[in-house]
Inverse folding.
C-alpha cells in the first residue's frame, strides 16, 4: 500500500493495537442541530482527548474545532439530502479532495446506499472519490448507510454492502454490528469500524455492543450518539476507550463508567 495512505491510516488506527475509537459528530449534515449536538464545539471539545480521530464535515471542523488540535480528521465529503427531504440516499460528493488536503484530513468519508434507488449513484460517488483521493495518499472510508431503513441491518445485507465498498477500493468501511457479524468481517478484506446507531436503552447495551463488535473482528468504533447523548459523555467515551485499547470487559468498563460518573458528582459533570 502507498506510504501516504499507510501513514494516514496509522494516525487513525493506533499502531500499538491496530484499533481505533473514532468520534462521530457529522450528524448535522442531514439531521441539523440534533439533540446534544446543537452547539458542536461545546459537545466536541471535552471529548477530543479521548478520541483517536474525529469524523465531521468541513463546516463544523472550521467553526468548532481549534486548528491547533492534533486529533486526526476523517472528513465527511458526501451529503446533499436531509431528514426532511424526499430521500436520504440521494447523496453527492459535497467536498473536493483538494479541500480535504487544505484541511489536512487523515481520511475522507462517503456514504453508499446499497439496495436503494440511489445505489448506482452512491457507488459511482465512491469510485470517483477513491480515484481522486488515492493519488494524494488520502484513505477513503465507505459508510454503508441505510437511511431510515434501520431494519436492513442484518449480516446478509451488511456483508454485501461492505464487500462492494471494498471491491471498489475503499480503504476501510463503516457499518453496523449485527447477529452473525463474523460473516460481515469474513467477506470484507479491509478493516471495519462500527457505528453506534441511535441511543441504546442502557449503558451496558452500549458497552456490550462495543465489546462484541471488537470480539467479532471489528478494528474499531466510529461512535456518536451513544457517547455525546449520554448524560456523562466524557465518562462514557473513557469507558468505551477502555474496551477498545485496554482489553476491558463490558463489566469492567461499566465499573469505570460508574466510578467516573460518581467522581464527577462532586466536581461537576463529565
Ligand atoms: C451517519 O450517517 C453518520 O455518519 C454517523 O457518523 C454514524 O451513524 C455514527 O454515529 P452513531 O454512532 O451516532 O450512529
Amino acid at each position: 500500500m502507498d506510504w501516504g495512505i499507510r501513514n494516514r491510516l496509522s494516525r487513525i488506527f493506533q499502531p500499538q493495537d491496530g484499533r481505533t475509537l473514532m468520534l462521530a459528530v457529522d450528524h448535522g449534515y442531514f439531521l441539523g442541530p440534533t439533540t446534544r449536538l446543537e452547539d458542536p464545539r461545546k459537545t466536541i471539545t471535552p471529548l477530543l482527548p479521548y478520541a483517536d480521530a474525529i469524523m465531521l464535515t468541513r463546516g463544523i471542523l472550521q467553526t468548532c474545532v481549534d486548528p491547533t488540535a492534533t486529533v486526526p480528521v476523517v472528513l465527511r465529503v458526501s451529503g446533499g439530502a436531509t431528514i426532511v427531504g424526499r430521500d436520504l440516499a440521494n447523496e453527492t460528493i459535497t467536498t473536493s479532495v483538494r479541500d480535504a488536503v487544505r484541511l489536512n484530513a487523515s481520511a475522507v468519508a462517503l456514504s453508499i446506499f446499497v439496495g436503494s434507488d440511489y445505489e448506482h449513484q452512491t457507488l459511482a460517488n465512491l469510485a470517483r472519490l477513491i480515484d481522486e483521493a488515492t493519488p494524494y495518499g488520502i484513505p477513503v472510508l465507505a459508510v454503508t448507510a441505510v437511511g431510515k431503513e434501520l431494519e436492513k441491518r442484518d449480516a446478509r445485507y451488511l456483508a454485501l454492502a461492505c464487500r462492494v465498498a471494498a471491491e471498489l477500493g475503499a480503504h476501510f468501511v463503516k457499518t453496523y454490528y449485527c447477529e452473525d457479524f463474523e460473516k460481515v468481517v469474513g467477506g470484507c478484506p479491509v478493516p471495519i469500524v462500527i457505528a453506534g446507531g441511535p441511543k441504546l436503552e442502557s449503558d451496558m447495551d452500549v458497552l456490550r455492543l462495543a465489546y462484541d463488535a471488537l470480539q467479532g473482528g471489528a478494528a474499531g468504533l466510529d461512535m456518536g450518539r451513544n457517547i455525546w447523548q449520554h448524560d456523562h459523555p466524557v465518562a462514557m467515551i473513557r469507558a468505551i476507550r477502555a474496551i477498545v485499547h485496554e482489553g476491558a470487559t463490558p463489566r469492567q468498563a461499566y465499573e469505570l463508567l460508574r466510578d467516573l460518573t460518581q467522581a464527577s458528582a462532586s466536581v461537576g459533570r463529565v
The mean pLDDT is 96. Residues 250-267 form the longest helix (18 residues). The radius of gyration is 17 Å.
